[in-house]
């Protein structure tokens, strides 16, 4: 909205005053819009789904207790909690070849986190990602700057799964992180070709085999030159097979450094 065509009387305020009033007006409408949105769609706890009060508290008290934030000491490769400071790498990272540099996750993948992640995916509670992205933004901003990240790349889901769900939760998370850090998202860089078997019942080497060749770099992107430093974004990191498969595809295509960020991370195997 422009105030350029104001009447003669109003021009008494001068340009500067009008600019100030305009800013105030936009601030007020943004605030009123948020108030109205909160009234119509009150924020809910991302774990139990109950309306939260007071509204500043994004997670309700009992659920806050249930979420377990990843604490030091952590595996220097995948960021998973390890038992003591002297342990450099978790068992998974010791046993399996890693081509990615390192990664970090916000929460330990416990029952509460698992319910919340499932609600995002299967009950279309995308708004829960606002809370996780804000927490990750605060916690990992400095880490990501240290990595000199150039682009955020969500781990793709198979197109048929995306169609059925209507969105890719990793992409939704990456967009929210991008808005906070000003790092672009490239959701087309990686392509998921093969529909993989459910990973749950497989051991880590079977998982990696299951995922090999599932991911490839989009040839249309590769022609335009690739990034030097990519940060993969996903909702859950369990044994690391998915991130490893993505990392191999990116490195084969010429990306020099690959890091990852996840909301949740499983415990060591
Ligand atoms: Zn709750
Ligand atoms: Zn590890």
Mind sketching the topology for me?
Elements: H1 14-40, H2 61-66, H3 91-95, E1 102-108, H4 111-122, H5 128-147, E2 151-154, H6 159-165, H7 169-181, E3 190-192, H8 204-211, E4 215-217, H9 219-223, E5 229-237, H10 241-252, E6 257-265
Parallel strand pairs: 1-6, 2-5, 5-6
Antiparallel strand pairs: 3-4
The structure holds zinc ion (ZN) (2 copies).
The site of one zinc ion (ZN) has 6 residues, from loops.
Question: What is the share of helical residues?
Answer: 40-55%
Low-confidence stretches: 1-14
**What top-tier CATH class of the largest domain fits best?**
Alpha Beta
What is the SS-derived class?
Answer: alpha/beta
Q: What is the chain-wise order of helices and strands?
A: HHHEHHEHHEHEHEHE
CATH topology of the largest domain: Rossmann fold
The proportion of strand residues reads 5-15%
Q: Return the average pLDDT rounded to an integer.
A: 86
Number of domains: 2
Q: What order do the strands of the largest sheet run in, or round the barrel if closed?
A: 1-6-5-2
CATH architecture of the largest domain: 3-Layer(aba) Sandwich
Terminal-residue CA separation: 58 Å
Number of strands: 6
Radius of gyration: 22 Å
Shape: globular
Please outline the major beta sheet. 4 strands, parallel
Number of helices: 10
Bound molecules: zinc ion
